[in-house]
Amino acid sequence: MRFASFRRARGSSSSRTRSALARVSSFTRSQRRLVLPALNELGWDADWASAFEQLHEDNLIAARVAAQHRGAYVVWTADGELRARAAGRLFYAHEVGEPIPAVGDWVGVRGETVTSILPRRSAFIRKRAGLGSDEQVLAANVDAAFLLAGLDDDFSLRRLERYITTAWDSGAEPVVVLTKADLCEDVAGALLQVESVAIGVPVYPISNVTGVGIEELAAHLRPGRTVVLLGSSGVGKSTLLNRLAGTELMRTAAIAADGTGRHTTTHRELVPLPAGALVIDTPGLRELQFW
Ligand SMILES: Nc1nc2c(ncn2[C@@H]2O[C@H](COP(=O)(O)OP(=O)(O)OP(=O)(O)O)[C@@H](O)[C@H]2O)c(=O)[nH]1
Ligand SMILES: [Mg+2]
Q1: What number does the ligand 1 atom closest to the CA of 284 have?
Q2: Could you tell me the distance, in angstroms and rounded to a whole number, from the CA of residue 183 to the centre of ligand 1?
Q3: Beta-carbon count within 10 A of 152 CB
Q4: What is the pLDDT of residues 178-191, one digit of tens each?
Q5: pLDDT at 85 over 90
Q6: Which residue segment(s) compose the domain that 161 sits in?
Q7: Within 6 Å (CB) of ligand 1, which residues are found?
Q8: Which one of 146, 208, 248, 262 would you pick to mutate in the ligand 1 pocket, going by the greatest count of ligand atoms within 8 A of its CB?
Q9: In the listed set 70, 85, 119, which residue is the last one of a domain according to the structure?
Q10: What is the distance in A from the centroid of ligand 2 to the CA of 238?
């Protein structure tokens, strides 16, 4: 449904489809530096267009990876959503260390096949559990990482510090979001503690229940920007996304005291907000998997 509404927003009449495809193919043929207006909303800019030109492949359409379901990718193009699979050669190249498409990647698609990945500007990488040195890209081409920590019993300053370090390493701008301010008796005290380890990083106490502080996040959610939500399971990532979207897009869940009910979100997904930013919701992190 979410993707369907995205498609609607882009327009789906056949004439519009034809003109959008014509725009893309004239772009691929002409080798001009051209920014496709429809892709701008997904974060496309002159530098991406330039990287795309350098692929020198015919009949290639620029697309952004919005989600991955088993082997198949949901990608967005100037004309809306497509389902695509990664080309076999990407898997072979992956075995010798080349990237495999991840949510947030800009890719080249021919037909229903992702044939190439544009060099990433930023990437959140973690070690995949139990698979030796295999890496997993959690999110690519992210401008800002909202690092969520709940101001409840689960709060850990050390964990937050490690998240901040990981964000700097990824190339994205860290933004600390302290959720569940409604459950904390001394928000000012918690803020002081967090600011002592989050040097140069903006920190926002918010409540997804009362809505306090959420408007302040708008500065980081400008149109075309991509933000990833990171943090432990139950911290309120999907609840925040629902609030920002103004609708119940993502399933959320209460965490039982015995730890059951964890990991409500099970896959990463790029979601366009009405205000124009793109947000990647992620399943809760077990932090030790991080590099
Ligand atoms: N009191 C309070 N509860 C919150 C707040 N934000 C989220 N919650 C609750 O916390 C629970 C977990 O929220 P989710 O949004 O599902 O957490 P998540 O980070 O997406 O968790 P995973 O998908 O498992 O990674 C839900 O019951 C929410 O209603 C908040 O600001 N205050
Ligand atoms: Mg979630």
Answers
A1: 25
A2: 12
A3: 16
A4: 999 999 999 999 99
A5: yes
A6: 139-289
A7: 179-180, 182-183, 207-209, 233-239, 252-255, 262-265, 283-284
A8: 208
A9: 119
A10: 4
Which bound ligand lies closest to the C-alpha atom of 255?
1
Ligand 1 atom nearest the C-alpha of 233 is: 25
- 57 belongs to a structural domain: yes
pLDDT tens for 19-73 read 433 343 333 433 333 344 478 889 999 999 999 999 988 899 999 999 998 779 9
Going along the chain, which residue ranges are E strands? 61-69, 72-77, 80-86, 106-110, 113-117, 123-127, 135-140, 144-150, 173-179, 203-205, 226-230, 269-272, 278-281
Helix (H) or strand (E) holding 51: helix 46-53
**Span 89-139, pLDDT tens digits:** 998 888 888 889 999 999 999 999 999 999 999 998 876 655 555 678 889
Same domain, 59 and 15: yes
Closest ligand 1 atom to 235 CA: 19
Q: Which two tokens stand for residue 232?
A: 């432990």
